[in-house]
Amino acid sequence: MASAVPPPRRSEVLSLFRSLLRTAREFADYNIREYTKRRTIDAFRQNRDLSDPSAVSAAFSDGKSQLEVARRQAIVYSLYAPKVKSVMEIKH
Amino acid sequence: MASKHLAAAFRRTSRLRTLSTASTAAAHPLPSAEAYDDGDGISMKGVKIAGRPLYLDMQATSPLDPRVLDAMLPYNLSRYGNPHSRTHLYGWESDAAVEAARAQVAALINASPKEIVFTSGATEANNISVKGVMNFYKDKKRHIITTQTEHKCVLDSCRHLQQQGFDVTYLPVGPDGLVDLDQLRSTVRSDTGLVSVMMVNNEIGVIQPMEEIGKICKEFNVPLHTDAAQALGKIPIDVEKMNVSLMSLSGHKIYGPKGVGALYMRRRPRIRVEPQMNGGGQERGIRSGTVPTPLVVGMGAACELAMREMEYDERWINKLQERLLSGITARLDGVVVNGSTERRYVGNLNLSFAYVEGESLLMGLKEVAVSSGSACTSASLEPSYVLRALGVDEDMAHTSIRFGIGRFTTEAEIDRAIELTVNQVEKLREMSPLYEMVKEGIDIKSIQWAQH
């Protein structure tokens, strides 16, 4: 079953990367936002040199499901965002 | 296709948000009379701050990971069945989710899912372990061994057993917070029913030598219980390697929901307990009561996440801890780390600042959410019993601050915490006559204070 799915093209991987970072920016919570950005960058960097096509496909589909989770949660967090932001977001 | 729905939903909700807050405020006024956070900053308990404090109290509790919330939500919305309902889909899907979560928790500690019992938290699991084991074997076993630095729930359960007539030995710890293995070995008696040592201490972050303690317990054939609430998902845990018979786990310390925990109970050799919650026989009769599916699913998701992210989180938290410690010690002297520096969990940094009073330090650190040495213990201003067990002087115990670093902490937060802490300590020391005397070279301990 794994061999039926072709590994993603470079453009698809880049698009997933950009979508994850864009979704990260939409989080109302400072800590979650920063974590999502950092984790995305580190995860893609770590998987950059994967050569086995099934490993690449697995990582890509894992990334896609994480993107779906992030999109849903960005909405949920924004619905309940506190009126006052974190001190880290307020100009010091 | 799903993404188009999500994008549309997002646009709708940004408009809805401005509508909903106004109407809900009118229709459902909050029980507390005044709103404490308006657009302008927060005012609560006489304190005014510009924004929500940065959170450095991960040992008290941790924020929910969005991925955990995502796993929990369906079970709060449409899949709300009782997992013990045998006759319909709602029960079946809920039960399937509970069993899947059970396997996730078990996988993190190298146990079988049949050995996991869900409880309301680590406190309940500790109660079941200590009181349940001793009451089950009460005809033959009358002695418990524990340490002076255990969590209050274990110490309180032991005290309760003492009142019932059991003997309890509270092992002292060294100045580094570690248990003396030879002392443990010499304390075991023929009627010792349980040894209880917590894996990672919640106040000082010290990691006890569980494998060696497990070996001693195996040698004497005494069951070993450990409170792993602070250790789960942060350091590798293997119940086989540690020879643990009972282990208490907590959900809300690993970015999971509050109100759920688990108890690991070894099956080979089987450890038996007397249940503390009687009822319909759920959870193999060990803990009756409806299993809270959303919470349990959340704990399972948190455990699976922890397994995947443990190494990455540790690298990040270690980096932040080093930054915090070096940032503070570079600008302040008289800073002491409480507890062993080698055998400690990286996310817990308990520091004492000499010549500074703890409460006044905390009052000046309102933009940082941290805990002090005495917070967990009681409402009184007594220094924490854990620090006292380490042999820390009263004055140093009073000024201890516990910094808890976690998965979501940022470098910027660490830098701001360093800034605020150093400024506040310097300000307080400036005002302190004791510090002046120390700078002039007077030995404080040799002062004869005049009686008025």
From TrEMBL, chain A:
The Complex 1 LYR protein domain covers which part of the protein?
12-69
Q: Name one Pfam family in it.
A: Complex1_LYR
Q: Spell out the InterPro entries in the cross-references.
A: Complex1_LYR_dom, Complex1_LYR_LYRM4
> GO:BP terms for this protein?
iron-sulfur cluster assembly
| Protein name (record) | LYR motif-containing protein
Which species is this UniProt entry from? Actinidia chinensis var. chinensis
Automatic annotation (TrEMBL), chain B:
Q: Which residues are in the Aminotransferase class V domain?
A: 55-416
In the record, biological process GO terms are:
[2Fe-2S] cluster assembly
The EC number(s) this enzyme carries? 2.8.1.7
User: Which UniProt key words apply to this protein?
Assistant: Iron, Iron-sulfur, Metal-binding, Pyridoxal phosphate, Transferase
Protein's UniProt keywords contain Metal-binding: yes
* GO molecular-function terms, A-Z: cysteine desulfurase activity; iron-sulfur cluster binding; metal ion binding; pyridoxal phosphate binding
- GO CC term (a single one): cytosol
Assigned protein family = Belongs to the class-V pyridoxal-phosphate-dependent aminotransferase family. NifS/IscS subfamily.
- Record's protein name: cysteine desulfurase
Q: What species does this protein belong to?
A: Actinidia chinensis var. chinensis (Chinese soft-hair kiwi)
